User: Fold these one by one.
Assistant:
Number 1:
Amino acid sequence: MLYGKWRPKGFAEVVGQDHIVRTLKNALATGQVAHAYLFSGPRGTGKTTTARILARAVNCQALRDGEPCNACGPCRAILGGSALDLIEMDAASNRGIDDVRELREKIAYAPSDLARKVYLLDEVHMLTEGAFNALLKTLEEPPPHAIFILATTDLHKVPATIISRCQRYDFHRVPNDAIVDRLAYICDQEGVAVPREGLLAIAVQSRGGLRDAITMLEQAIARYGAAPTVEDIRAALGQVHDPRVEGLVRALLESDLAAALDIARSVADDGLDIARFTRAAVDIVRQLLAAVLRDGSAPDIDDLLALARRRGDAVPLLAAALSELARADFRLDPASPIPLEIACATIILGPAVRPAAAPTVAALAPAATRPAPGASEPPGRAASGAGALSREERFARDLYEHCKMVNPSHAMWLNGSFEVLQMDGDELILGFQRKMPLEKVDTVCRTMVEQQAAAILGREVRLTVKLVEGTGQPKRAPRRGHLVEAVKSMGGRPVGKDS
Ligand SMILES: [Zn+2]
């Protein structure tokens, strides 16, 4: 298993959690050891790995700058899994009061082979109320030789009384760059050659979970050998690459609306997932925009980059493409190419064809590219593309994407069939126009939806479903605040009476 083999052995190797590593090393180097630590964060971001390094560091006989030596007796015992005083417990399967009581009885005994007994409680939010109370008593009067490391993916399910007894560390999703670098290192060490674009595809799909990313890499290598192509990687990830994606972006760069519409139509005719196709185009446009802005390169799409650079208005055009493509809404009818066609027309022809263009949008053009009053507008102006998904739309999209990864056949009941009526507070209200998806989401999908919503929102929510009147139109009320943010994120600044 690659993940076990390349699990970091020291703090310095932990990926993407510099804020935590720095604090822990400094504390350890100056002899400050807490009695209880709480590691929270998404799955696969390094909580258990860091906990095991910490367990070695507090027992190491030759600690250097806060790093365990991995060579002394205690370090080797923990690395080899033979240390009796490192007690790892998965609270998901030992969640009751008896389990914690047993732990409390044992904790009174002095350590046998290490200087300090270390209790690592994984998924601690799964404990029952009784077990939490028992644990709290231990945390209130910890024996001097014991250290607790609690880990959880659901901080909001851990009682505040427990949290307040612990030194808390919040693990973040690992940035794509850091995942790619780590995967590249592992490939190098393993004698495997994977193109960087393939590693990036893995990183994106892993959503910041390094462990998942390494597992995906391993599966791709197992299936396609030691030199998989980008296409192999995408196939292993279930994202077969379609060259029409580049074709569409080329058409946009050449202002060739006929070609863009042909591609949109042919993708729909093939019965492909148009939303996914469009997201792939968004990815390419994003790469191009970044390369143009930073004067950088874009391997594998250098012909498109050259094309973009030949245009004087590359930045506003790409910015418009980015936001128009990102806001194309396929939920009403996932098989229809129309949202993609409208996006392409708006990008190429400018805001004139934009349905229900909000006057505020035009006033928010990135300042640098704003034409003088009266000047004819170049095609594909950025002004047309300032719209962004509303918070609810973004959440709806994320919820569907999350659920699709958990259970694709259940997630289809969310595909294009609901709107978010309320997402603040502890009640999540989803509106459905049809009874069938409503009932499915209310029953078989309920747990999945509640869990994934909690993962996205960072707090627990209770799902309520409602039947709503069909309007025949997806709800889209562009909100001013979002437009401003979208424009600012592209480097623009609001002009006019609000500036
Ligand atoms: Zn050591």
Number 2:
Amino acid sequence: MQALVWQGGQEFSMQSIPKPRAERGRVVVKVTAAAVCGSDFHLADFKEKAPLVPGHEVCGVIESCGADVLGLVPGDRVALNPVQFCGTCGCCTKGLPHLCSAYRHLGAGGVQGGWAEYVAIDAVNAHRVPDGVDDIAACLLEPMAVCYESFTRAALQPDDTVLIIGDGTFGFLHAQIAAARGVRRIIVAGHYDTRLKRIAAQVEMVPCNTHHEDLAERVREITDGHGVDVAIEATGAGSSPNAGLKALRPRGTLVIFSYVWKPEPLAMGLIHMNELNVLGSCRSLGAFDPCLELLRTQKVNTRILADVIVPFDEWPVAVNRLARDKAQVFKAVFVPRQ
Ligand SMILES: [Zn+2]
Ligand SMILES: [Zn+2]
């Protein structure tokens, strides 16, 4: 079968590789849509070894089931949770399989991902997609689920005021999910007016372009000086976690959602004096099914993020648009060539 293979650095190429087989408890999925994640360009930074087939945001149709697969049959349309767990380690037995110490993540650690004609995965990681949710929307279930998890971590309440720092894909998804979970006061901070406008067209929120507006001031205005209940850091910038901390009310919660590559020291005085909560959120736990329900009932729209849709072999188009057209492009999705 054909696959788009990472060759180290920022090099990718189409290659012929063996098609996976459905082993016990696993399914083989014919990929119909697989998205590009920012982390797919950080494989070297994450010390991944080339060659590797990336891709952990995947929708497809089950082609074959191994022995002992219950509840799924060939032909089922599924979205994949890329974090496969062992079921026996300390985290798995504590009910935290997403943090499994022996996890196998699609498109990482030598596990073949979804940028290919077929991908194999543990059957429990394949979630049936309801009619009315198309393949492009469904392949973006994984990034949606990890955003959903941020709010679960923060124990979000509908009357909370939420600040989302970041106007990228994850900012857009967090904003939609906050609104879908009943939040009425949402601030989205970012750098691109074009992106903020698109988010505002979908979600009732107050935009703040931090290039020419003061975020702290904006927060004071909107919260009568109290500060927000929940701040989500979804940029990965070193200064961003502290901007989140400064925006919080006493006992407010900052969720570190993005991986911060060049962290700055956290404002410990603020955390101490205002009794702030700082929580990490990286993957998702039980979020796929509630997210599918939000897609089915059209409370969240992931489809509108897919600005570039190209066949796998036109991957340079996707890479270029993502790199050069940040103001316009949220997501790129690969599809099979027809
Ligand atoms: Zn991702
Ligand atoms: Zn485990």
